Structures are given as C-alpha cells and as structure tokens.
Amino acid sequence: MCTSALWLGCVGLLFATSQSCFQCFVDVQDSLRLCWGHILTEHNVRSVDACFRKLDRIFNHHEGVLEAGRVGEGYEKQLKEIMNAEILPMAEEFDKKLNTDTVYEERLQTAADNFIAAASKLPRGETCLWLFPSLCISFMHPSGFQSAGAVYNCITCQYDSCEFPLDCPVKEIKVTENSRSRVWCDVPFRLPSDIEVIWRFAEEVKTQQVDQFKEVTAGVDRLYSIPSTSLQHQGTYQCEIYSGQRSIVRLYYYLTVTPQVVAGHTELQEIFDLSLLPGGQLLPAPGGPPRSLLLHPSSLLLTACLTALLLLLFLSLGALFWSSAPELTSHAEETDEDEDLGF
User: Fold this and answer.
1) Of 38, 177, 246, 305, whose CA is between 20 and 30 Å from 183?
2) Distance between CA atoms of 228 and 176, rounded to whole angstroms?
3) How far is residue 319's CA from residue 333's CA, in Å, rounded to a whole number?
4) Which residues does residue 225 pair with via DSSP β-bridges, in sequence order?
C-alpha cells in the first residue's frame, strides 16, 4: 500500500512499465486519483501499485489498444480526447473512495474496449512501403524517407516515419547504341508537392560514391531522357529527390550501351542459331521437302557420286575425240591431193 511517503515510488512504478495510450494521454495526477482507493479483496488492503499493474496489463499489453492508436498524422489530439472521456469520469468517481479490485477490473476493461471502438474509427496512418525490384531495390532493402507513412505509436508516444536508408542499390539498364533511353525517378509512395529532382552522372563506372557524380539537371522532372544513346552515355545515373532541405531518396541506374555493329552481329548469330536443328542441320523451308531428304549424305556416298561424275566426264570427252578422228584424216588426204595437182 502506498502512503504519502511512497507516492513518488508509485509514480515511478507507473512509468517504469512500457508506455501505452494510457500513459501518453492521461496525466499522472489523474492516474493517482484513479488508483487511490484500489482494494485488494484477498487481503483487504489498499494497493496503488497493484492498480498500476492492472492498468499496464489492460492498456499496455492489449494489442487492440495499441492498434487502435495507430492513427494518421495530426489525430493524436482526438486519441487523447477519447482516452480522457473514458478515464477522467472514473477518476473523479473513484477519487478518495475505496473500491475492490474486481470493480476496477470490470470498469477499466470496459474503458479499454470503448477506447478501441472509438479510436478505430479515426483515419489510419499510411503503411510504410518498400521499393520493389522494378523500381529500386529488393524486398530485403527498403529505402527512402516516407513522411506520408507516419503513424502514431502508443509505445513511444510519438509518430513513426518510414526513415529507411536513403540510397537504393544500383539497377542495371542495357540499351543499344543510337537508341532512345529513358530513366524514371519514381517511388511507390506518395511524395510531397514541393519536391526537387536532381540528376547526376558518373561516366563509365558503376558506383554509389557521391564524390564521383557530376550534376546534370535540377528541377521537378523525374524523367531523364537521352534521344540518341552513344557510348559516352555509359555509366551510373543518380536521381535524388528533395523536399525542402530534406533528402527523401536516392535512386541509381547503371546504363550499359552496346555498340550497334556488335548488336547487329549478335542478332544475326541468334537468328542463325535458331535456324539450325540439333546437330547443325538446317531447318526445311516452308512447303519444302521433308526433313529426311535434307539430311547430309555420308562421306562414302559423296565420294562415289563424285567418282561417277568424273568417269562420265572422261568417257564423254573420249567419245567426242574418237568421233571427230575420221573427219580429220579425210581432210588431211584432200589437202595432199591438192598439193599434187599444183593448186
């Protein structure tokens, strides 16, 4: 039981427990008035510290109370009004009066249930969003200061913001030379209306070292576009979003530029590879002969075919020569006769 000499110790006991919406919004004096007449039925003695432990159990460790208190930014005043509407009339009623612990148990549990029902109707705070791989980073690496994600926390009696690390891992982008490149500086959470976007570039290197970047543009445009990409555009692009003097997030994109000639050779090679069947066989043309007719002949058959062609060629030349021999002989005899006759 707390005497006048132990009031300070009882107050210390109240705040030694974990915080809750009760401690966030109910003054210490009102808590003391509420628990002044708490009687332990088993021993028939007054015990303020037992009342504080009861408050801790009903409010501090009640998931429903903590969840109901997770309201959006600016609604903590309404939370306080709801809590005081349940506790202050009870503190006024119990002040300097004795009540058994069973009465306290019932009345405090009812107050907690009423608080949950009323506070749950207030606007909820936005959940902190994590950047996805297509935009910035993997599920395991959230980043960016999300001020719009602030929710009230009854354990700390203040708002929690999504203060993840500002820097996202580098995302790789591959483009072909002379093509158009577009990089978006975007995040999946709501941004303030007064943002400023600064684009920076580190040529030829893949890095997140701030001192290697040079500022390219500054303004409100979250799109960085390169009409005709050349090899000199290869490197890391950094997009940093500001709101006032606060940096919200930094995104990184490593741009790889493939030379157009190399890209053309690669495409031809891919087409050629796709046109071949397993074993290096060509695909038949549409409407062409079946695949069985396109198979490569064996080396023995090929040799036999070439030998037959050469033999046929020699036989044809020989026949042609022998067929023309009588004509040559007759022509020679006529020439000799002409000479004898003196022509």
Assistant:
1) 246
2) 10
3) 23
4) 182
